[in-house]
């Protein structure tokens, strides 16, 4: 992941889209909820297509959930720590 520059370009494009959707009565929290819903649905899809049968998919259900939950927690922890260290720069741009 860290060596893949397209990874960050894709992530930045999604963040840009999310920021564009914050308008009028639509809050950042609203957009965040929609983004989490979309990502969870997409992750369910990409997980399901890796299996040949629904039975095999069902058998790995808990492992799939564990994987995505742990990855999300690692990423969120990293970003919360970054925002903690750079709070004023990130939340109060000049």
Verbal overview:
- This protein has 94 residues and is an all-alpha fold.
- It has a single domain, classed as Helix Hairpins (Orthogonal Bundle), CATH 1.10.287.
- The chain contains five helices and no strands.
- It comes from uncultured Thiotrichaceae bacterium.
The percentage of residues in β strands lies in under 5%
How many domains? The number is 1
CATH architecture title: Orthogonal Bundle
SS elements, strand count:
0
pLDDT average, as an integer?
A: 95
N- to C-terminal distance: 31 Å
Inertia-based shape: elongated
Secondary-structure-derived class = mainly alpha
Can you tell me the residue ranges where pLDDT is under 50 for at least 5 consecutive residues? none
Q: Which fold name is given in CATH as the topology?
A: Helix Hairpins
- In helices, the fraction of residues equals over 70%
Order of helices and strands: HHHHH
> Which CATH first-tier class would you pick?
Mainly Alpha
Radius of gyration: 17 Å
Secondary structure tally, helices: 5
Characterize the biggest β-sheet. Answer: none
Protein name: DUF3144 domain-containing protein
Pfam families: DUF3144 (PF11342)
Organism: uncultured Thiotrichaceae bacterium
Outline of the structure:
With 94 residues, the chain is mainly alpha-helical. It has a single domain, classed as Helix Hairpins.
What features would you highlight for this structure?
mainly alpha, Helix Hairpins, 78% helix, 0% strand
């Amino acid at each position: 992941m860290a060596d893949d520059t397209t990874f960050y370009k894709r992530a930045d494009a999604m963040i840009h889209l999310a920021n564009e959707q914050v308008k009028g009565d639509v809050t950042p929290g609203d957009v965040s909820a929609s983004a989490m819903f979309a990502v969870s649905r997409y992750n369910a899809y990409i997980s399901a297509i890796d299996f040949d049968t629904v039975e095999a998919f069902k058998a790995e259900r808990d492992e799939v959930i564990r994987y995505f939950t742990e990855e999300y927690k690692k990423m969120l922890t990293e970003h919360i720590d970054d925002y903690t260290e750079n709070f004023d720069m990130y939340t109060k741009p000049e």
